[in-house]
Amino acid sequence: MASRLNPYLSFSGEAKQAMEFYKEVFGGTLTVNTYGSFGSETPPGYAEKIMHSMLETTSGFALMGADNPPGTEHKPGNNIAVSLSGDDPGELRGYWDMLSDGGTVAVPLEKQMWGDVFGMCTDKFGITWMVNISEQQT
Question: Considering the entire predicted model, what is its pTM?
Answer without folding.
Answer: 0.86
